Amino acid sequence: MNDLITVRNLSVAFDGHEVVHDVSFSLRPGTCLGIVGESGSGKSVTVRSLLGLNGPRAQVSASTLDVGTDVLTASPEELRRLRGRRIGYVLQDALVSLDPLRTVGAEIAEPLRIHGIPRSQRPGRVQELLTSVSVPEPELRARQLPSELSGGLRQRALIAAALALDPEVLIADEPTTALDVTVQAQILELLEENLAAGRAIILISHDLAVVERLADQVLVMHEGRVVEEGATDRVLSAPQHPYTRRLLAAIPSAASRGGRLSDLPPAPIAERPARRDPSSGPVLAAESLGKSYRGPDRTLRQVVEDVSFTLDAGETLGIVGESGSGKSTTAWMALALTDPTLGRVTLDGEPWTGIPERRRRSRRRRIAVVQQDPLSSFDPRWTVGRTITDALPASQPEAGRAERVADLLRAVGLDPSFASRHPLTLSGGQRQRAAIARAIATDPEVLVLDEPVSALDVSVQAQVLDLLADLQQALGTAYLFISHDLGVIHHVSDRVLVMQDGRIVESGTADEVLHAPRHPYTRQLVAALPRPELEEIA
Question: With CB atoms 3.0 to 4.6 Å apart as the test, which of 85, 214, 316, 384 could cross-link to 479 if both were Cys?
């Protein structure tokens, strides 16, 4: 069987700085090659080289770069014919990758138009493609904008566009990142169907469980080099290189609870005496919360119904569920950023919702939030230092503010020099550390963490989870931790709530809920996880 792709001694440099060094691999029909490594390891640059997409500043060299066409000598016109027809490319973030001003149908039809498919044939082909990736109501979805679809449907639409010209090879760059576990399972099933049909796949992922499920062969990349390669089962069950072993050790799970995931030393945080008597009751309590919204058709839609929980000082309460289950709405009510339609929230035993904001303002410092995407929550014009300074309480003396910002940056493992940096100049992990520094600036008793590590690669995720554990141990902060990642939830949580369709369907200790689930929906979530062997390996 002939190779569809052959790469030998590929190197890529930008402005003389080499970022990919001497990479080699091949790909046959019906097989999947997984490429893993942390952000900046050269994964995406490597696969973009196959399509000539690294841009005019890139200097690409190789003894062989053959994808059915010699990429090194191909003309721009030959490369355009290659893209989509020979190789389809599924990008990571569907919402960013799809044009927000064009319908989904127009996006999928674009490669058909570029490659000369007659206009009369395009609508039917678009519906065929949406049907083939299991998008319900394809005629309706084709007329909708990307913003009107769920994350899972957007990702399916992106895959449909990549398959429009029936390519022999599909490159999937982080296709399941930030998707909840059941939607992730559906996307993986779709990719498995493509493999079974004889299509070859190059899968880029920081999720080793996803790679373990799909890939036949795996390349482990670190700082632009392949440090380990071979059959997936062998590499992930008996890793030889220290970096591969470190990636596996960084996977959060029940087995890792109470231990460190990264090899970084604990953050330098001064321990604080307990601020409240443990017998004084929960620091945060929700009683029979309900929230409803009136939709565009004026119909009242219940998004949260009869949700109750308590959170004690120094405790972590995890909330899991699919997209649309009401997790984030519950968190926003806990923060009093939206008022419940029914029920109430108390903070330190005092009313927190259902009161005027002026009565809350002096207590706002007691509860803070870390959001999923810190870049979108930062003002890009402000430096990190100004962002953190803005969060400091009014009682903080002006003369000591710069030193307080420096202390906060040190506490989250950043050098004080980061205060002069802008958010766009930071890596994903650095931005999340800065977001945590901002959140703890007021010394809160409760920290609401809404998917704080879902978009981070496994090693950076490990560092952030270790940092959160260090902060909790030193400061006694209570965490309300929202995530779709059951491994993360099991690693960090004392107790877990499972939400479905706005209701709590199961609750208990992390071990009770995730090792012996009682509700059918919880069992479905656990069953949808990629194969469990990696938890045993880690």
Answer: 316
Residue pLDDT, tens place only, 34-75: 999 887 789 989 999 999 999 888 999 999 999 999 999 999
Domain boundary among 232, 249, 266: 249
Last residue of a domain, one of 194, 228, 249: 249
Cα–Cα distance for residue pair 413/406, rounded to 1 Å: 11
> Please, what is the Cα angle at 191 between 189 and 197, to 5 degrees?
105
In a domain, 497, yes or no: yes
How far is the C-alpha of 377 from the C-alpha of 229, rounded, in Å? 39
Rg (C-alpha) for the chain, rounded Å, is 24
pLDDT band at 153 (very low <50, low <70, confident <90, very high): confident
171 forms beta bridges with 89, 202
How is the chain split among helix, strand and coil, in percent rounded to 5? 40, 25, 35
Alpha carbons 476 and 311: distance in angstroms, whole number: 12
Buried b (16+ CB within 10 A) or exposed e, 74-110: beeeeeeebbbbbbbbbbbbbeebbeeeebbbbbbbb
d(CA 74, CA 62) in angstroms, rounded, equals 14
